[in-house]
Amino acid sequence: MNDMNKDQALPAPQDAEVVIVGGGPVGMGLAIELGQRGVRTIVVERYPQPQPIPKGQNLTQRTMEHFHFWGAEKELRAARTIPVEYGIGGLTAHGTLLGPHTYDWLQRDLVKPYYFTGNERLPQYATEAVLRERVAQLPSVRTIYGWEAKAVAQDADGVSITITERGGTGERTERVLRAAYVVGSDGARSVVREQAGISQTRTDHDRMMVLLVFRSPGLHQLLERYPGKSYYNVLQPELQGYWKFFGRVDLGNTWFFHAPVPPGTTRDNFDFAGYLHEAVGAPFGVEFEHIGFWDLRFMLADSYRQGRVFVAGDAAHSHPPYGGYGVNSGLEDARNLGWKLAARLQGWGGERLLDSYDEERRPVFASTMRDFIARSIDTDREFLNTHDPQRDRAAFEAAWQARAQGAVGEVHAFEPHYEGSGVVWGSAGRVSSAKGSHRFDARAGHHLAPAVLPSGSNVFEALGTGFSLLAFGAHADAVQAFRAAAEDTALALTVVEAHGAGEHERYGAQLVLVRPDQFVAWSGSDASVSADRARQILQTATGRLARVVAA
Fold first, then answer.
1. Is 74 exposed, middle or buried (0-12, 13-18, 19+ CB in 10 A)?
2. Which terminal CB of the chain, N or C, has fewer other CB atoms within 10 Å?
3. For the chain, what is the largest distance between any 2 Cα atoms, rounded to a whole number of angstroms?
4. Which of 321, 122, 97, 324 is nearest to 209 (CA)?
5. How many Å is the Cα radius of gyration of the chain?
6. Which residues face 293 on adjacent strands?
7. Is 10 helix (H, G, I), strand (E, B) or coil?
């Protein structure tokens, strides 16, 4: 072959290893995950500044673990708009907020012991600002603001992404970016998803919803009877299980409100102030800042991957903002996909590892929709159709108290896990789901609970950026078998050893292999492991080996 033919055979030069289309919380979180691992990344975001709509406010303990490992937890907590001492709890009311029937709702503090960090609450635009600031500190990440994707085409060597500059000049500047992979985190109307030919399954609940953002010190005064509450859910029989939902943007002044409205409602033909007063049960002054509409529906992409193209966040799944599941699910997508892309690009992960992104995240969100969000709508509808305090007060109050206890159970039951993943040991015949149970023992496919080591530090402070092996009373030969297997496959492995009594004993295992996203890949109660078994465990966890059924 002559030199000219050699040149023609070379693949097109890459602008980045990964291009992320969409720089909201999910896209920026993914950029940080990749950037901290040295992956050359470009983020294309249509808006030069975060959009000032206060959505996606509730951040779970698990999400705050991401911010901890992304080096932005302190900055995020400093950006909150509600004082720490006030509280960020929730409340559910029947009829009106000022009525006699209320209970605490979504008490996420109940599961705090199972996570390394506490939960948080702040508007999404404040979260985005913190993420953008962190991204700007990473030399391997480049941001292109004010541009959006127009076309995506992939081939055997990479992906070409055509982007255009947004603006009102009439002439649109166009350029093409080349990368090994592209991730669409560009929202429910994702161009990347459509261009990749990824279909979606949609469930339309045939409900038009309004989003109001308004100022009202008077509402704050009315709700002072509920100290420490930052979001309020109102159930009314005529809504057939759909909510009226208030949330604080700050303390004392700004609010947002979601609720169903009749088809055909516009900004000018509906009494929104009266609608708010009716939900609260009293009049108060209102100054509107934003009136917008959206359709209540569920959407799940039929695949999260098509070759070199991936989707994440709202591009992969969307649902009504019930229970604060949306932004948290999207950020977990970012955490899950980021280390896997880095592993594949840097040579320590196999192709099966990339397939596991869909295997893990898609069934978890399907379960989130089915077992938590849609189920809550159905359950509320059934409750409202069955129980009425005007008809049978005693029966209503008994059922209302049972609902209050059920709200506690829901928090404990939401425990996303990857038991059915092909890169989790012993996954054959199991199913990944959002429904589980919070426990301290180390279970393959489940999030690792924190534990204070005999040294006084937490195990989360000792975990590495790659895989970590927790060795608690294990034989030295077993630890060496894992070290040797990791070295043979160029896998960075951090070994965390502890001896004596302590919280680490509640893991119920002497050896625990922890993934870069703090999920357990394998655990063993036998203190000894052969060299062959150690190699097999690591190859499975990094996607280099077919699914293995544990003995």
1. exposed
2. C
3. 90
4. 321
5. 25
6. 210
7. coil
